[in-house]
Design brief:
This protein has 308 residues and is an alpha/beta fold. It has helices at residues 7-27, 44-60, 75-87, 106-111, 124-132, 140-151, 171-180, 195-200, 251-255, 268-285, 299-304; strands spanning 3-4, 34-40, 63-69, 93-96, 160-164, 184-188, 204-207, 225-228, 232-235, 243-246, 260-261. The protein has two domains: 31-119, Leucine Dehydrogenase, chain A, domain 1 (Rossmann fold), CATH 3.40.50.10860; 140-270, Rossmann fold, CATH 3.40.50. Helices cover 40% and strands 16% of the residues. The structure holds guanine. The site of guanine has 7 residues, from strand 4.
Length: 308
């Protein structure tokens, strides 16, 4: 029997838990968590993502502020926007929606978000903490995958885990988290040889490659856990909108072999937004030093960090 991991239902449950925590804060007379989303230019997919993040905030009582900057925005203007948000007491989390227009320096922009407001977990300080095994802000998609495994009571310790894809947003943090959870982790990518054999040996497979139905069902290890991070749009004249969404895994044939599998849509996708809300709540809960901000070296910030 294959269990289909219902990310939509799980995300709803987590959102309800966050809404309760936010209500407790505000009913005690405290300010709600605040998330700023910076979007530059008019990327259509980014607009859809930003709208759903805003809606999710509204539903959970998190204060959200969108900063929409024009496509011609300069690097200096973008950095100044982030600098102001870094200092804004109403804002606990800052997300710079990617991709940025190509004339902007994405790396510099992401590194300019102060680490304690970095709800995307992209700042090098947080990447470093993750690599050291310290509790910190972790990118939302791999965090969502870990939460799924946890809530479905899927054991990780000692398992062979294969992560396909080595991006900074998914593959690398995913490998770090699975390693921390005591899996034996392999990271595969576009240059990897003999991928089907590696997949056939994986008790837990996380596919984040961005190629529609790239992983064939027949490669999947019987009884394994298949987590599909891909969201690919493919033309389908018979679909209502002329396209349909598929993952990186050939779902139907993989589902026949796997013990657990995530569907696309309705699997990892909804969990990503739920984790953004969770990270924003976590940012709100970091103790604030008397100087009105949390410096990484200050006791306030240190006290919330713990070796996992
Ligand atoms: N664009 C696509 N995915 C992401 C994400 O996780 N964070 C940000 N900031 N931008 C994205």
């Amino acid at each position: 029997m294959t269990t289909i991991i219902d990310g939509k239902q799980l995300a709803q449950q987590i959102r309800a838990e966050i809404a309760t925590a936010v209500k407790t804060l505000t009913e005690a007379g405290q300010i709600p968590p605040g998330l700023a989303v910076v979007i530059v230019g008019d990327n259509k997919a980014s607009r859809v993502y930003v709208n759903s993040k805003k809606k999710a905030c509204e539903e959970t009582g998190i204060y959200s502020r969108e900063i929409a900057l024009g496509a011609q925005t300069t690097q200096a203007e973008l950095l100044e926007t982030i600098r102001q948000l870094n200092q804004d007491p109403q804002i606990h989390g800052i997300l710079v929606q990617l991709p940025l227009p190509s004339h902007l320096n994405e790396f510099e922009a992401l590194q300019s978000v102060v680490p304690h407001k970095d709800v995307d977990g992209f700042n090098a300080v947080n990447v470093g903490y993750l690599s050291l095994g310290v509790d910190t802000f972790v990118p939302c998609t791999p965090l969502g995958v870990m939460e799924m495994l946890k809530r479905y009571n899927i054991a990780i310790e000692g398992k062979n885990a294969l992560v396909i894809g080595r991006s900074n947003i998914v593959g690398k943090p995913m490998a770090a988290l699975l390693t921390k959870a005591s899996a034996t982790v392999t990271v595969a990518h576009s240059r990897t040889r003999e991928l089907p054999a590696l997949i056939g040996n994986a008790d837990i497979l996380v596919a984040g490659i961005g190629k529609p139905e790239f992983v064939k069902g027949e490669w999947v290890k019987p009884g394994s856990v298949v987590i599909d991070v891909g969201i690919n749009s493919v033309d389908d004249p018979s679909a209502p909108r002329g396209y349909r969404l598929v993952g990186d895994v050939e779902y139907k044939s993989a589902a026949e072999r796997a013990a657990y599998i995530t569907p696309v849509p309705g699997g990892v996708g909804p969990m990503t937004i739920a984790m953004l809300l969770a990270n924003t709540l976590k940012a709100r809960q970091i103790p604030v030093s008397t100087a009105g901000h949390v410096a990484l070296t200050a006791e306030g910030h240190k006290s919330h960090l713990k070796l996992a």
